[in-house]
Amino acid sequence: MQSELSQIQAFFNTEYPLNQNGLNELFGLFKVEKVAKGETLLVANTTENYLRFLNSGVVREYYATPDKETNINFYAEPQFITDLSSFINDTATNKNQECITEVELLAVEKNAFRDLLDKYECGKSFIEISFQRLLKQKELFEYNRITKTPDELYKELIIYRPNWLDNIPQYHIASYLNVTPETLSRIRKRIS
Hints:
Layout: H1 2-15, H2 20-29, E1 31-35, E2 40-42, E3 50-56, E4 59-64, E5 69-75, E6 79-80, H3 84-89, E7 96-99, E8 103-109, H4 110-119, H5 122-147, H6 150-160, H7 162-167, H8 170-177, H9 181-191
Antiparallel strand pairs: 1-8, 2-7, 3-6, 3-8, 4-5, 4-7
Helix pairs in contact: 2-4, 6-9
């Protein structure tokens, strides 16, 4: 189990330097889960009940209507992938999450996590910082979607998310850019 925790320990040491006793107790709550490619982790209109950390693999996050799925994010590096708003507020999520590859997760149940937050004051700062980052990311995403062309968005992926282009099927990238796969092919030809 120690090797499975190395990524999350490194994440906390760099991103959220918190009380060591609280962290050790938190790490003890996580359970390792292996999830197969194509499996669903989160379904719209349900409540997020687990704090989940992606140890390895790729997960896509998307909105779905009866007619269309639109990718809104991909997780391809060690990080939390929980819908924090649903998790903290006990509300239904609008998001879906699916494994694009086999995935290894660390997960802790909501009530156990809340008990830990009550015990250690530092847990509140984790939630506050996480929400601030989530809000900043969402605002940047919305701004980019409205103000930038698909060509510009693709160029940003080349610079800031090259691992997405290497590990995620092109039709998912096209959905993320809100273009057809054929349009993405033309964008790729123009840029290369």
